[in-house]
UniProtKB/TrEMBL annotation:
It comes from Bradyrhizobium arachidis. SUPFAM superfamilies: Porins (SSF56935). This is Ligand-gated channel protein. One of its GO terms (molecular function) is siderophore uptake transmembrane transporter activity. Residues 78-88 have a biased composition (Low complexity).
Amino acid sequence: MQTLHSRAGVAPGYSRVFLISLLSSVSLSAAAIAQSVDRDKPPVEIGPVTVSPSTPRTAPAISPGNQKPRTARRATGRRPTAPIAARPTNPPAGDTTPLNTAAVAGVSSRLGISARETPATVEVISQQTMQDLGIRTTTDVAKAAVGVTGGDAPGAPAIFSMRGFSGDQLNTLYNGIPIGPSTMTGRPMDVAGLQQVEIIKGPDSLVAGLGATGGAVNYVTKAPHTGPIVNEAFTSYDSFNGYRAGYGSGGSTLIDGLDYRFDISHFNDKSFIEDSYSRLSNVSGQLNYRVNDSLKVWGAAEYRQDKDRFYWGTPIVPANGPGIVPTNGIVSGVWSNYYLGGGTPVPPTIDARTLTTSYNVLDNHSGASELWLRSGFQWDITNSISLRSQVYGYDAHRHWFNNEISSFDQTVGNFAGAQSIYRERLALDHAQRLYGNITDLTVNSSIGGMDNRFVATVAASNNQFNVSQDTLFFNDYVDLLNPDRGLYGPRSDEKIYTRVNTASLSFEDRLKLTSTFALIGGIRFEDIKLDRTRFFPDGTLESAKGYPFSTTFNPVTGRVGYTWDITPGVMLYSQYATAADPTVANIFILAPSVPLLLTTSRTYETGVKVLSADKRAEATFSAFDIQRKNVYVPESGIVFNIAGKIESKGIEIAAAINPIAGLKLWGNVAFVQSRFIDFNYVDGNGVFQSYSGKTPPNVPNFIANAGASYRFDTTLPVEIGGLMRHVGDRFNFQDNLLVMNAYTTFDAFAFVDIPKTYFPGVDRTRISFRVRNLTNKLYAAWGDPGYTDQIVLGAPRSYEVAASFRW
């Protein structure tokens, strides 16, 4: 919750958005005029504003510094990115494979190639997969990906951990557009309006930009299709008294060449913790207009809102404390109260009487409103040259107003006595305004008889990020079992204004040396200008602390790799890729008192992708070695210490098969070893510390998922299935003393598909029933290293009934 939205100083931005839009319109007109010159050329069919797989016709494819560690990591709203002018297309039904590798992913490349053709590990989770697996929010998406975990830490909602990295070391994009560090910009989000979620593993600054050390996640909204109008509606209700409903419609209009898409949804996501919820609302729409066979223009708008009463975690308590009712299997190791820094290390536990208790103040509230405006065009200039461009504007307001710290104080009275939970407040407001443009030129050619595809991308953006943050950190004590939650109390805000101007130029190329062997590579040059100003609560400039200040970063990143189809259906690949991000915290909260440097990361990856001839079985294997250098980690309050580097090595395996009609089997495993290297320092008390060899927080060394379903081909088709998920031990802090224990959960589901003959006018009706956490497992879902004395618990067993309709 590092920066919630201040409205000051951002109004002038939209005039520039309109100017950019005007220039885009002028370029569209010029494109249309130029197109008329080519009337005698054979017409070229272009698809929606989406990235299309390669085809023989060679048509180009579209495809605040001085703050406490907990506040220094707070950020708001985050969204996936693939070039804005491009939108990956879903493969035709006949091209669907069990692991969905035929899908095109804009997060991994602008070449318009499929996940299978990319020399990296790329996963594309379709809307249909989300429905089948019961995925409702972007945090749930982690459960569908190989080796990924997700956490709804309230200070940085909907963040992920994969390949040994988490938080701001993973970049989040929305329709290919990066909006800023994920811990600052991430929000809870319903997936109902998404077409797919794309994930690339490992360093990927080539496409995703600054911060994609562990990988990148791209959220792609639903887009129009050409053809008959299709309507969809759904509703659900669960045993936590949460409900969800939505409607969507899309297809061709009566105006020749004009297609539309419209979606609206609302989700009242009730928590198992008392007085906690997230109310998520979304409305989005897009129009595509085919001016002629070679030119398409489009415009899109989306508004999202979340209103939340957050659960900030359950306090860790001494297992041997008088009166404590310990639980088993949630945490282990030793603990001695990190935040208050006192007490003798003791075995930790979660008190069984506090599993649903809220320690938040009664007047707590959090939320955000986000508005996207996007427009662009795709122009096939010739059969081998294509130009696409997109302009965008994004306006977001986020706020937090909570008690955030709930730390059991071992030094106060006896353990069972009243007033033993120390609490501390934080209020924060973000105001963000982002606008920019992404333009791609794609050229398909032949070099010495070898097919070649080349893409040049120019992008520029202006990102204004204003913060108003309470500096009082008002605190008190409450009882462990019966907290008098009270009200927030006094507030006094400082103002922090940040502007990031970014311009980049990138090139990608795929050269097919033979029909089965391709070289793929790219390079990205960036110019990033950062300006920050900070004001005391009385409005005076904090000049004595080095404000205002400016700095410039010029990272150069890229990728080189190959793909080799050694036999039909068996492809080998390898790659070397790099990424860059700030050494300390994230770019929105850098201060003049910390190292204003970029850290670099690189990966070596190799693997194999296998697909059976009948496309009923598919498997992938990858092995990787990632190194991130010059890493700084917060210690001793606001002091940052160098951790040398982080090394992460591992393998990932995924497989799926449809052996007989109606039966689906799938599973995946990930083994990761992530370690700090040369992490030695002297703390604020003059004591030598070493975390060398320790594992970063929230990184399990083993994750496994498995599932099966069978569809009975009866008059009323019924499908039943189950899911298993295992997550290994993790740590909530870099000293690795407190362990969040490994856990295994099971889900079960059943669908009944009612054909049209039962409900005339409705092509398909589906009634479903789902049980989540079937065995009612108690477990730690996430440990926020900024709130080290509390653990976010996983939800207990719940039931859900749902209905969906398509006509």
